């Protein structure tokens, strides 16, 4: 019953429907990439391409009000108590505001309301500010991860001290393998204890693949972008359906 209630709440939200459209769009992109090299799949590929285009157009309608949400998010992030998240999130949200403005202008051109708009110029501006937003969000994620790793390391050292055991790995910190094992252990434990932080990091990392490709910083193929977009969309679906899984700003 809880799952059904969560699904109902999810589909009733504009943001939830946009996430479903997004997941569909990137699923089509991934399937199209996988099927294109195969002989006899031309009709299926063409249908997937048309569906992808239709879903992409539908998503633009859901995103029209996102400028307001981004402005509200900027106002909220200004009041974060910790300096690093406050700075990163405020700048990230400001870039999101600019990105959604560019996105709206591109939508105006696509529906024929203004024909004199330079599509390529505005598309690159949108990609650039989307990239800045995601990069700043990832910096915030890495900062939060470092704090959690410090806490796990402190608790671990405290537990070892109380049990009168030699600290594991710290006596041979000069050995790269021991350091790597210790780092991976702390990273795993930190993300395991904080699923919202894991989801946010995975989502931002997968999302940044698209603007990296558009800006020519790191070229990817449609398969990688489609897979990244699908994983990111699933993470977004989870955070919308279960708000407690959304990373909170302190």
UniProtKB/TrEMBL annotation:
<keyword id="KW-0962">Peroxisome biogenesis</keyword>
<dbReference type="InterPro" id="IPR008733">
    <property type="entry name" value="PEX11"/>
</dbReference>
<protein>
    <submittedName>
        <fullName>Peroxisomal membrane protein 11A isoform X1</fullName>
    </submittedName>
</protein>
<keyword id="KW-1133">Transmembrane helix</keyword>
<dbReference type="Pfam" id="PF05648">
    <property type="entry name" value="PEX11"/>
</dbReference>
<feature type="transmembrane region" description="Helical">
    <location>
        <begin position="223"/>
        <end position="242"/>
    </location>
</feature>
<keyword id="KW-0812">Transmembrane</keyword>
<keyword id="KW-0472">Membrane</keyword>
<keyword id="KW-0576">Peroxisome</keyword>
């Amino acid at each position: 019953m809880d799952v059904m209630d969560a699904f109902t709440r999810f589909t009733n939200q504009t943001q939830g429907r946009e996430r479903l459209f997004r997941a569909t769009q990137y699923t089509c992109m991934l399937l199209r990439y996988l099927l294109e090299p195969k002989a006899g799949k031309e009709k299926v590929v063409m249908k997937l391409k048309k569906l992808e285009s239709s879903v992409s157009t539908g998503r633009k309608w859901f995103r029209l009000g996102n400028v307001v949400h981004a402005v509200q998010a900027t106002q909220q992030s200004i009041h974060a108590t910790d300096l690093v998240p406050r700075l990163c999130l405020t700048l990230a949200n400001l870039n999101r505001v600019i990105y959604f403005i560019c996105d709206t202008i591109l939508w105006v051109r696509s529906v024929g309301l203004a024909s004199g708009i330079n599509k390529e110029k505005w598309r690159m501006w949108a990609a650039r500010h989307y990239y800045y937003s995601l990069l700043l969000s990832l910096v915030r994620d890495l900062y939060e991860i470092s704090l959690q790793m410090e806490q796990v390391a402190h608790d671990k050292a405290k537990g070892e001290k109380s049990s009168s055991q030699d600290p594991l790995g710290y006596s041979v910190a000069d050995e790269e393998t021991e350091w790597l094992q210790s780092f991976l252990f702390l990273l795993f434990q930190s993300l395991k204890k904080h699923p919202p932080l894991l989801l946010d990091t995975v989502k931002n990392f997968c999302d940044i693949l698209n603007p990296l490709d558009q800006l020519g910083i790191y070229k990817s193929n449609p398969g990688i972008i489609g897979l990244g977009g699908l994983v990111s969309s699933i993470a977004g679906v989870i955070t919308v359906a279960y708000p407690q899984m959304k990373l909170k700003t302190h």
